[in-house]
Design goal:
mainly alpha, 76% helix, Amino acid/polyamine transporter I
Length: 386
């Protein structure tokens, strides 16, 4: 991959960040919003956006100052893991990251397979294989191919969404849940929204693609997560207004309420949402593997993608189970490891002005807020909502 084109436009970099989050989490948010009510959900979603932008800017800060093509595993190895424990901790973290990635990617295969199987009337094993071929195929061709594909996919999702918006407003609308709750379900919602905004491993990709124009990096982060924020809000409100019963995968109940024809567009929207995340995350895993081992593209691609298909085919858990498991695993890793990594990075570069978090934003209180937010995300991801 060293010689492939890696320069990205602002829109392509933002699309990679947005695509990393758009998918499983966003499709699961409306179900949790229906359990909490609109007022408390709006507070949770707004807080999650601010904390997510803060942490992603910290990742961008460290990645930008860590040389060419930095990846999170190597960043931890450089700034956090020290002494005789450096090698075993780095390898342990690498192993955990691989397992979390496999669970996340398997969740997208399982979710998309369920939708395609229901829509087309084909066996789930066939629909999962189709999604795998389309998802893993683009990742094989590298960062530029992913950036272009993410941009086109988000454009397609936008067109479908506009059609859904127009038609939704023309049907009898359901009352919105206006209750206010602050309990375990609220924390579960916070965990899922934070997962929907999570693009930890896409940030180094954006940094690499915008290396010659670093001033665009924070704009790409704010815009990329902002796209996810708008999609979360729009999908939640419209699916709640349309659906007589909000389903775990929001688009299923939403399209059923609009009419049979909408099932096709709903399936396209949801599969595009999931495949954008699959592209970004599987490519990140390929890059991490190649930093750890002397692998060519083909074996790195096979190792990064094939196990995700096998995990999905064994059906160890359902769509929401995969998403919440992956979200909780990522949250624990990021909350416990990245903020201390940022501290070590700033200590090693004490004489250098921060690129993206200067002034009041460099205060330690914001770093503690970020850590607390991701620890809360981890707790929320494991809370029972039965």
């Amino acid at each position: 991959m060293a010689n492939e084109g890696k320069n990205l436009t602002l829109l392509e970099a933002s699309s990679i960040i947005a695509g990393n989050g758009i998918g499983g989490g966003i499709m699961a948010v409306p179900f949790l919003v229906s359990l909490n009510g609109i007022p408390s959900s709006l507070l949770v979603i707004g807080l999650a956006y601010l904390i997510s932008v803060l942490l992603h800017l910290m990742i961008a800060e460290v990645a930008t100052g860590s040389g060419d093509n930095p990846q999170v595993v190597e960043i931890f190895s450089r700034y956090l893991f020290r002494g005789r424990w450096k090698a075993p901790l780095t390898w342990a973290f690498f192993g955990i990251i691989c397992l979390v990635f496999f669970a996340t990617l398997a969740g997208y295969i399982a979710g998309a397979g369920e939708i395609l199987s229901s829509l087309l009337g084909i066996p789930s094993i066939v629909s999962q294989l189709v999604f795998y071929v389309l998802g893993a195929g683009v990742a094989f061709f590298g960062l530029k191919a992913i950036g272009i594909s993410e941009k086109l996919a988000i454009l397609g999702m936008g067109i479908v969404f506009i059609l859904f918006f127009i038609v939704t407003l023309s049907i009898p609308l359901q009352p919105l849940p206006m209750g206010f709750s602050l309990d375990a379900r609220t924390l579960a919602l916070f965990g899922m929204v934070m997962f929907s905004f999570a693009a930890f491993f896409a940030v180094p990709q954006a940094v690499t693609g915008l290396r010659t124009r670093p001033r665009l990096i924070p704009m790409a982060i704010v815009l990329g997560i902002g796209i996810n924020l708008l999609v979360v809000l729009a999908v939640s409100f419209l699916s709640l207004l349309a659906s007589k019963q909000v389903t775990e995968i929001a688009m299923i109940g939403w399209s059923q309420a609009i009419g049979p024809w909408a099932a096709v567009l709903g399936a396209i929207f949801t599969v595009l949402a999931m495949i954008t995340s699959y592209w970004s995350i599987s490519y990140a895993l390929m890059t991490i593997l190649q930093e750890r081992f002397p692998l060519a593209n083909l074996p790195a691609w096979l190792i990064a993608t094939l196990p995700t298909l096998l995990v999905a085919l064994f059906a160890l858990t359902g769509f929401l189970g995969f998403m919440r498991l992956a979200g909780g695993g990522i949250a624990v890793l990021i909350a416990l490891l990245f903020v201390p990594t940022y501290w070590q990075y700033r200590k090693a570069n004490a004489g250098v002005k921060p690129l993206f978090l200067a002034g009041v934003w460099s205060h330690a209180i914001f770093q503690w807020v970020a850590m607390a937010g991701y620890l809360a995300m981890a707790v929320g991801s494991f809370i029972s909502i039965e």
